[in-house]
Every structure is written in structure tokens, then in C-alpha cells.
Here is the input.
Amino acid sequence: MRICAIIPAAGGSRRFGLGDKLSQDLGGRALLLRTVELFTRREEVSSIIVAAPPEEGDFEQFRERYGAQLGFHGVQIVAGGRRERWETVKLALEAVPGDATHVAVHDAARPAASDELIERVFEAAKLHPAVIPGISVTSTVKRVGEESIAAAEDDALATAILGDAGSEAVSARVIEATLPRDRLVLAQTPQVFERTLLERAYAEVDPAETTDDASVVERLGERVVVVEGDPRNIKVTTTDDLAMVRSVLGARPPAERPVHKRF
Here is the structure.
């Protein structure tokens, strides 16, 4: 099994709120580099592709920031999509070397995937054409309506006192149903596929509105299996997520380390 790891890194970090999340310091190295290093030490991984922001100027800036360190690991940088994640993966697939038998797609913002988790997914990929990790849902799951309503009769009073903040504080949505959780899992990455299967899925299926690569394969009508994930495999979306990842990795924030050890 020869795996090409694709790491989509073309997103704009819009929900992070503190600049570029992929450049955040994790123990003296950028978050993106910590993610890439998860695969540089795997014998099964024969190539790594990082898909960068494609806009003019952004791509060059990305190469200037990460190119030397990624090049040290033999990583190929390609331009990703402009809008959706699936566009980025589809473009990166075009750069996968011909000798790769499998493709592993891993979120650039998941730097805390453990060796045990990756080993579990890779081992399952020897037996199944499409494998993803997932963690069981333990909380009660509710489906709610789309529209917000006033949560209290004194909503007008709260708005008068607090303005828009008051309105937000007392808005609510109505529960439509409580969903059974016994067969629900939260999907994670890396997601591993036989190369020909993933290429066929992206060639034959409309991936619009899909949020992961397993969804594209599912639309093709092919079976995807789930192995046990890891709750520590956190995707950094907010600053709170970054704090949790630092805790998992034992990486102190830059301000808490000696100056000569900061990123």
C-alpha cells in the first residue's frame, strides 16, 4: 500500500477570529507543519500534497511562509479551490503520483491525530476500499427549527436595556425532534480511499454541499466503513479549540516559553 496524503489548506480561517489558524504556534512549529509531520514519519505514505489558497498573492505568500519547511519533507504544494473544500480535494487529486494506490485526506487543522489512530485507519484500509474514523455521539441530539423566536415575554425589555445584545441573549429555536444517537458518529480524518475509487467518485458525482470525502464516495453508492476515532483528534476551528489542542500536545503558548524557543 502506497499512500498519498492530501492536506487541504486553502480555507480562509473565517471562524477562527485570530488571523491564520494554520500559522498558530504549537510548541515552536506552525500548526500546519505539525499536521504534515503526522504523515512524514509513516512508511506507508509515499507522497504528501498540501493544497494552498489559490488567489494571486495568497499562493505566493503561502509558499514563502511554508515552502522551505514543507520542501524539506518532500511535500508538493498545489493551488486549492476558491470556495468549497471538495474543490480543493478534487484539484489536489490531479497531482497524486501515479504509483499511489491509496489517498488519505486529512484536515490541515487536525494536528493532534495520534499515531494509534492513523495506524488503525491505515490497517483497515488494507481490507476496505473506503475507511474513516468516527467517534460515537454521547450527548442527546436534538433537531431544531431554522428560525429564531423570542424566548421570553420580556424580550422587548431586554432589547431596550441591552440593544442587539439583549435580543441575541434571549433568542431561541424550537425543538422539532429528539434523534436516536445509538448509530450516530462524528466523522474525523484522516479518511483513506483506494485511489481509483476516490478519483471515480469525484469524476462521476456532483460533490456540491458535501462536507467530507466520504460523502462523495457515499453518493457514488459505494460502502464506507468507520473505525474508532479519537476525541483528542480535534479540528481547530476556534481559539478554544486551539487551547484544547495545545493541552493535548503539551504545547505551551508562546508567551509561556523562553523567547529563544518561540516560533
Remarks:
- The mean pLDDT is 89.
